[in-house]
Model the fold of this input.
Amino acid sequence: MRKTCLNMVHELAGRDERVVFIGSDLSPGLLADMKAEYPDRYYMEGITEANVVGMAAGMAMDGYMPYVNTIATFITRRCYEQVALDLCLHNLPVRLIGNGGGLVYAPLGPTHLAIEDLAIMRALPNMTVTAVSDADEMVRLMEASLDWPYPIYIRLGKGGDPVVSRGENGFQIGKGIRLKPAARERGYLLFISCGVMTGRCLKAAEILEREGVDCEVLHLHTLKPLDDALVRERVANAEAVVTVEEHVLNGGLGSAVVDTLIDSGINSGMVRLPRVKRLGIPDRFAVNYGVQDDLLDIYNLQPEGIIQASREILGERIDG
Done:
């Protein structure tokens, strides 16, 4: 996913003279072809994220469209004030590309785990927040980013994740995708997911359907602006809802979904909301090391854990 995203920056630079790449002390030779072809639109700065964001904001004010890339924890935590005041306050078309969202950097421990990035980016006015499912969908997001006039946070997965998105579903920033529609009009189990968790939800749905559970998977590649209308529509006829994210439960996808459900219930006089279970990372720093899948196992975010939680919310007996 990361390689695809950065290659798309090079491709977009060939189409649009506004496109600029800014890296923060990344791998030697990264986008070397772009550097050779467009040397005046390629910058590799040091480990100075606040300066890099300010630089990108200044270039955007001069008519450029900077794509800024570094590790997700660095592009969110270290320069949060600059992102808020330099980018969002002025509503500038800068794209922040965060490497390793979620638990990708599990071998490096809690300092490098971007488990709250979606929440802190969602909190900023004017910021668009995205987490696509795979490399193919990343291409579609990058294509759409060229015409999006606002700041964007682009969360990158590890890379090499199974491709589960489909081109025929189209892609539009702010619009969710019913990646696996339910068979029935009512009474289905609704999974709502983002990022690489969507692939795991599809696997869980496949197993549950063999057990007779009608499932739908709603993929929300854009957390902000959230597709409120589609969420309300699909929730309205669901028996139960399970949100799944590689992120702390505070302020992420599950929080966004619950917010829109409560607001719509209050505003429309709705008296019944379905049962909702939010799956994500607990509100604490990781104490385990390993690889991404190890931590996903610990947090019950693999298909087996998703299935277990789904059975519980449906009220079925757990056989162990």
User: Anything to note?
Assistant: The CA atoms of residues 148 and 186 lie 36 Å apart.
